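Example S7 (structure tokens).
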């Protein structure tokens, strides 16, 4: 039986995150680095050389040339968020499947344009939220879904922060209103809101209200913010994201019988293993001197890192479409859209003076 050909990736842009994804494509068993395009041919050539593109890879001095390459199956799009709708819609019109960096758009209306273009052209769409593809994530979900060990979900808390240096705060695209106007909310808050949705089985909350005193830079881009999300059944979630605090990447989920804690959910402490803590029916000993039973430490190992697992899953979906006439999987754009809805709601609450925003799909 003939081996299924590898899915060929073309890169549109040479952003810093593209270095990590190019390595992921090289590590994924069913994907191949085929092309890279930049507005500068020299920049594209230097990127290909520095990031392990094979000798036969195509190097282009424009984004359009990547889209016009008939051998490119997938385009990876790490461009600034303000450019996503333009280039994703064009890529879909060229029948290219799209791995799209997060946040997927500046607002859900823009993302709906991308979804419509992908659906009308029969192409697969997935965002680049890598931690979703780590085997730890499915193991944690098993615990959250176990009514005997975890019970019913009651609250979720998530944080993602890091201390940005002066150069980042002055020059990074994530602090430029014309490039990534969502700032910390789009960059870090995306992960927190995705974690909240994931823990809640992607059930959208009914209301969102932003935390007071978010921090902006001089041109109005968010550097730090948070929010509270509420469901009709009483569930509540909070998150905080910031470019101004030490590195944290936490999820805590609390159920009627159990608790889940993970402190490195976005990028694991170690590349090929990750851990989480799970506790059930926890209390104290008779003298109230220690916890009984103590939380279990669960270590999950993987042969390839989570970003390569993401590429592998995306390439698998594309291969199924290309070789087996399958339909694009709607799960991933649906999850992306719900995450974008919550990003929009937090921003709207901030912009409207911390008004309670009701979520409508």
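Recovered sequence:
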């Amino acid at each position: 039986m003939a081996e299924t050909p590898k899915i060929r990736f073309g890169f549109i842009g040479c952003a810093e995150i593209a270095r990590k994804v190019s390595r992921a494509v090289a590590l994924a068993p069913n994907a191949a680095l085929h092309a890279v395009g930049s507005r500068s041919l020299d920049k594209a050539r230097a990127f290909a050389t520095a990031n392990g593109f094979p000798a036969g890879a195509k190097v282009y001095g424009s984004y359009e040339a990547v889209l016009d390459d008939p051998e490119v199956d997938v385009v990876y799009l790490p461009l600034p968020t303000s450019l996503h709708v333009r280039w994703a819609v064009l890529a879909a019109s060229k029948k290219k499947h799209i791995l799209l960096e997060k946040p997927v758009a500046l607002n859900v209306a823009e993302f709906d344009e991308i979804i419509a273009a992908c659906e009308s052209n029969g192409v697969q769409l997935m965002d680049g939220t890598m931690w979703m593809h780590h085997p730890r994530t499915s193991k944690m979900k098993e615990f959250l879904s176990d009514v005997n060990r975890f019970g019913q979900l009651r609250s979720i808390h998530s944080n993602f922060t890091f201390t940005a240096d002066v150069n980042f705060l002055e020059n990074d695209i994530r602090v430029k209103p014309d490039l990534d106007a969502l700032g910390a909310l789009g960059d870090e808050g995306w992960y927190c809101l995705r974690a909240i949705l994931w823990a809640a089985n992607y059930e959208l909350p009914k209301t969102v209200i932003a935390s007071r005193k978010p921090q902006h830079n001089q041109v109005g881009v968010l550097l730090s913010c948070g929010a509270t999300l509420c469901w009709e059944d009483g569930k509540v979630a909070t998150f905080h994201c910031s470019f101004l605090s030490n590195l944290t990447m936490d999820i805590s989920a609390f159920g009627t019988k159990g608790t889940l804690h993970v402190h490195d959910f976005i990028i694991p402490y170690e590349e090929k293993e990750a851990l989480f803590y799970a506790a059930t029916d926890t209390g104290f000993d008779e003298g109230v001197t220690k916890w009984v039973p103590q939380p279990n430490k669960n270590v999950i190992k993987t042969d390839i890192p989570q970003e390569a697992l993401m590429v592998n899953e995306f390439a698998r979906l594309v291969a199924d479409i290309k070789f087996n006439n399958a339909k694009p999987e709607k799960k991933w754009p649906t999850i992306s859209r719900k995450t974008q809805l919550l990003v929009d709601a937090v921003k709207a609450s901030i912009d409207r003076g911390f008004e309670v925003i009701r979520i409508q799909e």
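Notes on this example. The radius of gyration is 21 Å.
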